Amino acid sequence: MKPDHLSDLTFASLNLHPRLLSGLAKLGYEHCTPIQAACLPKALAGADLAGQAQTGTGKTAAFLLATMQHLLTHAPRSPEGVVAPGAFILAPTRELAVQIYNDARQLGADTGLKMTVCYGGAGYEQQRAEIEGGVDILIGTPGRLIDFFKQKTFSLAYVECMVLDEADRMFDLGFIDDIRYLLHKMPKPADRKSYLFSATLSHRVLELAFEHMKPGVEKIEIEPEQVTAERVKQQMVHVSNHDKLPLLIGLMRTLEATRTMVFVNTKRGCEMVERALIKNGFTAATLSGDVAQTRRLKLLEEFKAGKLPILVATDVAARGLHITGVSHVINFDLPNEAADYVHRIGRTARAGTTGDAISFVCESHAYSLPEIEHYIGMKVPQIEATVESLKPADYLVPERLPRRDDDKGGRHHNRHSSGPRRRY
Questions:
Q1: How confident is the model at residue 205 (pLDDT cuts 50, 70, 90)?
Q2: Percent of the chain scored above 70 by pLDDT?
Q3: Among 96, 225, 293, 404, which residue has the least CB neighbours within 10 Å?
Q4: Is the pLDDT assigned to residue 412 strictly greater than 70?
Q5: Are both 24 and 148 inside the same structural domain?
C-alpha cells in the first residue's frame, strides 16, 4: 500500500533510464513525493524549473533524477581531454552539498556517472585531484568551486544541466555575486537545462530565475505547511530568559526523546546550552559555523547513528540535512525569520513520520512569534504545564563562558577563500 505522504505517480511510469530505475528499486522507492510528481514530468519533457519546496520533501531526488536522465541519454559536449562537468550543482552550505552528493551516489549507483563534492574547510588537494580525474556531476559550495575554476581545474563551457539549491539561502549568505559569476561562465540559458529550488519564490529569487533560465520557466510551488509542518506537533511555552536553561533540562528529563535537535540563535548561546546539558548528565554537542569541517561531519554521523542523542545547532544546520528519526526539535531561541522556523521544525516528521517541536518564547525573542504564526497560518498551542512544574529542583548551573566580542550570530560566510568520457 502507498504511504499517505506519497503521490499516485510511480517512477516506473516516467520512462526513466533503466539504470536509474535499478537504483530506485534498490532504495525501495516506487511512488513519487508531491514535489517529485510535480517536477519530474516537466523536467523530463525539457522544461526549466523554479521550484518552491522545503528539505525533506524529495526535491533533491527530483533534480538529481532529471539531471542524471539527461546525462545518460545525451553524449557529452566537451572535447576529448577537457575536464568539464556535464552537470553543475550549487549549494549554500557544506552540509547541504555533502547531502546532495550522498543522495546522488545512492540514486546513481548503477549509472557509471562520476561525481564529486567540493567545499571549503577540508580536502583541498583531494577535491582538486578528483575533479582533474574527470567528473560528470560536480557538486559544491560557491567559494571552493570558484577557487578551482579560476585555477582552470575545470571548465564551465560545456555544462548541460545547472542546479541551484536553496536559492534564498544564497542571498542570505551573500553568495549571489558568486552565483552570477559562475552562471555567466556557463552556456547561455537556451543551451542548458536549469533547475532552481528555494524555500520561497520571492521576488529576488524569481528575478534570478528569469535572468539565468530559459523564457517560460515552469514555476512549481509546494506550500511549506502542506509538506512539512502538518505532521509536526507544535507547542510553545512562555519563559523568562533566566528560566530557559532549567526549563530545557526539565523538558529533556520528561520527554521520551530518541534524537533531539536544540536550535539556538548564536554560537555563544549554543556553547552555553551544550555546557548546561553536559553538566546535568546529558550527552550533547554543538554544530555551528566555525566548527571544523572534519568535526562537523563526525558529529553528524554520530547523530545519525544514534551515538549522539542531542545536537545543539545554529541555523547553519537548519537546511539541507536529511536525518531520519529526529523525534524532537526544541527552539531554545525563536528564530528571527519566520521561514527559519519552518526549516527548523522540518528536521523532524520526515518521510511521513511524526515529530514534536517545542519553542521557548522569552523576553528576547517573543517579538518573532506573531510573524511566525502568520507565516504558518496557525496559532502555536501553548504547553499547559507551568514553567515551574517543568523546572528540575536539582538543576546544576554550568560554569559561565568567558566574554567574547566576536559572536556574529552563527552565520558563516564562505567567500572565495583531462578526464574520462561518459560511455553508456
A1: confident
A2: 87
A3: 404
A4: no
A5: yes
The percent of residues in the chain predicted with pLDDT above 90, rounded, is 53
Question: How many angstroms separate the CA atoms of 384 and 381, rounded?
Answer: 9
Tally the residues of the chain. 424
Residue 90 resides in a domain: yes
Q: How far is CA 250 from the centre of its chain?
A: 30
Strand order, beta sheet including 87-90: 115-118, 137-140, 87-90, 161-164, 193-198, 49-52, 218-221
What's residue 318's pLDDT? Answer: 57
Task: Quote the CA–CA distance of 373 and 369 in Å, as a whole number.
Answer: 6
**What CATH number is given to the structural domain containing 201?**
3.40.50.300
Separation of alpha carbons 369 and 381, rounded Å: 12
237 and 201, same structural domain?
no
419 assigned to some structural domain: no
Could you say which of 202, 222, 242 is where a domain stops? Answer: 222
Torsion of CA 184, 188, 190, 191, to 10 degrees: -120
Residues 133 and 198 in one domain: yes
Largest CA distance in the chain: 71
Task: Kindly state the DSSP code that residue 360 receives in the 8-state scheme.
Answer: E
The kind and range of the H/E element at 413 are none
51, 32, 336, 338: which is closest to 196 by C-alpha? Answer: 51
Q: Which three cell numbers stand for residue 151?
A: 585555477
Q: In 3-state terms, what secondary structure has residue 369?
A: helix
What is the DSSP-derived secondary structure letter of residue 10? B
Highest mean pLDDT among 90-94, 181-185, 225-229, 371-375: 181-185
Specify the DSSP class assigned to residue 398: P
- The reply to whether 181 and 32 lie within a common domain is yes
Q: Does 245 lie in the same domain as 214?
A: no
Per-residue confidence band for 223, with pLDDT thresholds at 50, 70 and 90: low
Domain, as residue range, for 244? 226-390
Task: Check whether 9 has a pLDDT greater than 60.
Answer: yes
**Co-location of 72 and 200 in the same domain:** yes
In a domain, 142, yes or no: yes
Q: CB under 8 Å to 142, separation ≥6 — which residues? A: 90, 92, 170, 175, 178, 179, 182, 414, 416
Structural domains of the chain, count: 2
- The rounded distance, in Å, linking the Cα atoms of 379 and 360 is 14
Three-state SS letters, 146-176:
HHHHHCCCCCCCCCCEEEECCHHHHHHCCCH
